[in-house]
Write a structure and sequence with these properties.
Layout (H helix, E strand, L loop, with lengths): L5 E6 L3 H16 L6 E7 L3 H11 L3 E3 L2 H5 L4 E4 L7 H9 L4 E3 L7 H14 L3 E3 L7 H11 L6 E9 L16 H4 L3 H21 L2 E9 L4 E5 L5 E6 L5 E8 L4 E7 L8 E8 L2 E6 L5 E6 L6 E4 L20 H18 L7 H20 L7
Parallel strand pairs: 1-2, 1-4, 2-3, 4-5, 5-6, 7-12
Antiparallel strand pairs: 7-13, 8-11, 9-10, 11-12, 13-14, 14-15, 15-16
Helix pairs in contact: 1-9, 4-5, 5-10, 6-8, 8-10
The protein binds alpha-L-sorbopyranose.
Alpha-L-sorbopyranose binds next to loops.
Length: 377
C-alpha cells in the first residue's frame, strides 16, 4: 500500500458530504491500517457555501465544475443529488477513477445500467453507499442467517418510516420531482430496505420472481419559498410519499416492504425482520447496537447487544457496551471502499449489486402503474 495519500474529490457538501467527510477524518485514528487519504477537492455550485463547507470539512481545494476535478483526484465520491449520479460517475470511470456513489445508484433503471456498464469497462473499484450494510448488528444478523440459525427463510419484512413531509407546507425540493429524483420514498428509503433484505437473505431465498407495488402521493404540490420566507410559487410533487410492496422469491419465501415520509412520530425508523423455520430476528435502526434473536424452542426474542470485541468493526472503537452511532456506519463503509481502492480489490455493494436494487424499485413502480404483479427486468 503506497504512503502517498489518495486524493479524494467529493461532489456534494451537505448531509452526505458531512457524513463521508466525518468518516474520512476518523479513519487515521480508528482504522490506522486504512489508506492515507487527503480530502482534496470539494465540489459544489454555490462558491460561498462551498468555501465555508471546505473549511469545516477539511478539504484543501474547492471546485464548482466537477469535470475539472476528475483529472486532479485519485478517487471520486459522488454524493450529489440523484440527477447528478450518472454523468459525473461515468466521466470519472472513463478517466479510470474509482467511484463511490450515494444511493440510489440513479433515478432510472437506464441510468443505473449506464453506470454499471461504465464500471465494467473501467475495471476499477466502485461502490454504492448503502451504509446500513455496515452496522455491526446487521453483519451479525447476516452471519446467523448464513449459518442456518433461522433455518429455511420464509419471510423478510422491511419498513423505513420518516415523518419530515407530514406538513403540507414543507418546502418543495428536487426529491419531490420524478424527473430529478426518479421516485420518492421508494427510491430514497426503499432502496436501503431492498438492498438490506438482499444482503441478509438473498443467498438463501434466490432471485425475486415477481413483485406487486403500490405508490401513493398524499400532498401533490408544495411551496417554493423566497429568501424572505414567502411562498414564491407552488410546484407539483410528482413522486410517491409512501410505498408498499410484496415480493415473491424463487424459493417460495415472501417479502413485504414499505416506506413513508408521512409516518408521524417516526424520525429515521428503519426496521428489518426475518422469519425462518427455526427462528426469527429483528433489527431497528433506532436501536442500532441491538439485534433481537429467537431461535429453536425459545419462548421469546433475546435482545443481543452487538458491541463485543469480536463483533464486526467493534474492536476498532470502544470496549463492550460503549455503543456506536449512525455515523460509524460511514466510517466502516469508507474503510472498506478505500482499502479496495488501495489494493485494487472489490467493494460490496458494487454498482452491479446496486443495479439489482434498481431493478426491484423499477418493478415496484411498474407494478403500481400496471395494477398487476410484474417480474423485475
Ligand atoms: C432521507 O431523509 C434520508 O436522508 C435518506 O436519503 C438517507 O439515505 C437515509 O440514510 C436517511 O434519510
Amino acid at each position: 500500500m503506497t504512503d502517498t495519500p489518495l486524493k479524494i474529490g467529493v461532489l456534494g457538501y451537505r448531509f452526505m458530504g458531512r457524513a463521508h467527510a466525518n468518516a474520512l477524518a476518523r479513519l487515521p485514528m480508528f482504522f490506522p491500517d486504512a489508506p492515507t487519504v487527503e480530502r482534496h477537492t470539494l465540489i459544489g455550485r454555490d462558491e460561498d457555501a462551498l468555501e465555508t463547507a471546505a473549511d469545516q470539512l477539511g478539504f484543501t481545494h474547492t471546485e464548482t465544475d466537477w469535470e475539472a476535478t476528475i483529472d486532479d483526484v485519485d478517487v471520486f465520491y459522488n454524493l450529489g443529488p440523484n440527477p447528478l449520479h450518472v454523468e459525473p460517475s461515468v466521466a470519472a470511470l472513463e478517466a479510470g477513477v474509482p467511484v463511490l456513489c450515494e444511493k440510489p445508484l440513479a433515478p432510472t433503471l437506464a441510468g443505473a445500467e449506464t453506470m454499471v456498464d461504465a464500471a465494467a469497462d473501467a475495471d476499477v473499484p466502485v461502490g454504492c453507499a448503502f451504509n446500513y450494510r455496515f452496522v455491526p448488528a446487521i453483519r451479525y444478523a447476516r452471519e446467523l442467517i448464513a449459518a442456518g440459525e433461522l433455518g429455511e427463510i420464509r419471510q423478510v419484512r422491511g419498513r423505513y418510516l420518516q415523518d419530515w413531509l407530514v406538513d403540507p407546507e414543507a418546502p418543495w425540493a428536487w426529491r419531490m420531482d420524478a424527473d430529478l429524483a426518479g421516485s420518492g420514498a421508494l427510491g430514497d428509503l426503499g432502496a436501503h430496505t431492498v438492498d438490506l433484505a438482499g444482503f441478509l437473505v438473498g443467498d438463501m431465498v434466490g432471485e425475486i420472481e415477481r413483485v406487486s407495488g403500490h405508490l401513493q402521493t398524499f400532498v401533490d404540490e408544495r411551496p417554493v419559498y423566497d429568501d424572505a420566507g414567502s411562498v414564491a410559487e407552488r410546484r407539483e410533487v410528482s413522486v410517491d410519499d409512501a410505498y408498499t410492496a410484496q415480493v415473491a422469491y424463487e424459493s417460495g419465501a415472501m417479502g413485504s416492504f414499505e416506506a413513508s415520509r408521512f409516518a408521524t412520530g417516526h424520525k429515521n425508523d428503519h426496521t428489518i425482520e426475518v422469519h425462518g423455520s427455526n427462528g426469527s430476528l429483528r433489527f431497528s435502526l433506532e436501536r442500532l447496537n441491538e439485534l433481537e434473536v429467537l431461535t429453536g424452542d425459545s419462548r421469546g426474542y433475546e435482545t443481543v447487544l452487538v458491541t463485543d470485541e469480536d463483533d464486526p468493526y467493534v474492536d476498532r472503537w470502544w470496549p463492550p457496551g460503549h455503543v456506536l452511532g449512525w455515523e460509524h456506519t460511514f466510517v466502516h463503509e469508507n474503510y472498506e471502499f478505500l482499502t479496495a481502492v488501495a489494493e485494487g480489490g472489490e467493494f460490496s455493494p458494487s454498482f452491479a449489486e446496486a443495479y439489482d436494487v434498481q431493478r426491484v424499485l423499477e418493478a415496484i413502480a411498474r407494478s403500481d402503474a400496471n395494477g398487476e404483479w410484474v417480474t423485475p427486468k
